[in-house]
Write a structure and sequence with these properties.
The protein has 361 residues and is mainly beta. Helix content is 12%, strand content 57%. It has one domain: Autotransporter beta-domain (Lipocalin, Beta Barrel).
């Protein structure tokens, strides 16, 4: 029996050694790390997640669909002024997103020459937004929002971290055509600071780099809402364009440190969303489903950062976001609590929890 067990163990070890796949990356097994910078892999997901979170929060900054006419001025899911709010309102939002990805790689080898089939990483994006807006007449709304974000990504494939933080300013506006249809538009600029590190796969030292970046975005939606008794049915078709310009930088800390040129990344998306709410008076539960399609994207791979002819091989170009939430309101104050999840992407998953509070002034 002992001989039999020994044969099984030996066979397993043989299979592992012949597979020659990199299984670990840390300061002990540093030669199993990929000699590549983090942003070369994480950029696309980072840009998509952060930009959509800001634009969607601005659009859904309000809390009820009970007042159909004025809700159009705050996007599909909001009650704005009218009987419930004054001409000026302020709002705030906090949100936290946890996400992870397994990005396929081609021609990727670690320090031992073993294949690295996936670049896996996990991240947390936390943000705070505040804004104010006002009605001009009965059909036009204008406002401005300010936000701060922190993003922390652990890159398993190179034993490192990508940390970023920054501020965003975003003006927005909406116009009500009638009791059913409206249009909204928002734009924004973000100033970001990145700190990145990874393990040198020749000696286990830590290689570090830092750089600044500028991000711009513009988003617009055509919205519709229909009321049937206490039921509210809403939908929208939207477009989002965002781009980011990252400064070039030189890493420090080891023989594999790289000098990276400026990197440009951008994304264009078509967005189709639906939600259903039921009003119980002072509270309103709802469900929401949103489809996003990446109609054009540049991941910045031309700037390099991966070894040799290594490249990412991502074919995902769409996703579905599902969510549930609860809106609470009382006279001049309202709040929204929402959880949502990204599904449908083969290489990426995320969960978001957010809370919004709004009041007239």
């Amino acid at each position: 029996m002992a001989i039999k067990h020994g044969l099984v163990i030996a066979t397993c070890l043989t299979l592992l050694s012949t597979a020659n796949i990199s299984l670990a990356c840390d300061t002990i097994f540093f030669d199993e790390c990929l000699d590549g910078v983090g942003p070369a892999v994480t950029n696309s997901d980072n840009l998509r997640t952060a930009s959509y979170r800001i634009t969607n929060t601005i659009r859904n900054r309000d809390s009820s669909e009970e007042d159909i006419t004025t809700s159009q001025l705050n996007g599909v899911t909001g009650r704005a002024a009218g009987d419930h709010f004054g001409n000026w309102s302020v709002w705030g939002n906090v949100s936290s997103t946890a996400y992870d990805a397994d990005i396929p790689l081609t021609n990727a080898l670690d320090g031992l020459g073993n294949p690295v089939p996936l670049a896996s990483y996990e991240g947390d994006l936390d943000s705070v937004l505040i804004g104010t807006d006002t009605l001009i007449g009965n059909q036009f709304l204008v406002g401005v929002a300010f936000s701060y974000e922190e993003n922390d990504i652990f890159t398993d494939y190179n034993g490192g971290d990508n940390e970023s933080d920054g501020f965003t300013v975003s003006p927005y506006a909406a116009y009500l055509f009638n009791d059913i249809f409206s249009i909204d538009v928002s734009a924004g600029y973000s100033s970001l600071d990145y700190d990145t590190d990874r393990i040198d796969n020749t000696n286990g030292n830590t290689i570090r780099g830092n750089f600044d970046a500028d991000r711009w975005f513009v988003a617009s939606n055509i919205n519709a809402i229909i009321n049937r008794g206490n039921w509210y049915f809403a939908g929208r078709i939207g477009y989002l364009y965002t781009e980011e310009e990252q400064d070039g930088y030189t890493e420090t800390g080891g023989p594999t440190a790289r000098t990276l040129p400026d990197r440009h990344i951008d994304l264009s998306q078509i967005i189709v969303g639906f939600d259903v709410a039921y009003s119980f008076g002072w509270y309103e539960p709802y469900v929401i489903v949103t489809y996003l399609n990446d109609i054009n994207a540049d991941d910045g791979s031309s700037a390099g950062g991966l070894p040799g002819n290594t490249a990412t091989a991502v074919n995902d170009d769409d996703e579905v976001q599902t969510g549930i939430g609860l809106r609470l309101f009382d006279n001049d104050v309202s709040g929204t609590l929402e959880w949502s999840r990204v599904i449908g992407r083969d290489t990426f998953d995320s969960d978001t929890l957010m809370f919004t509070l709004r009041a007239n002034i």
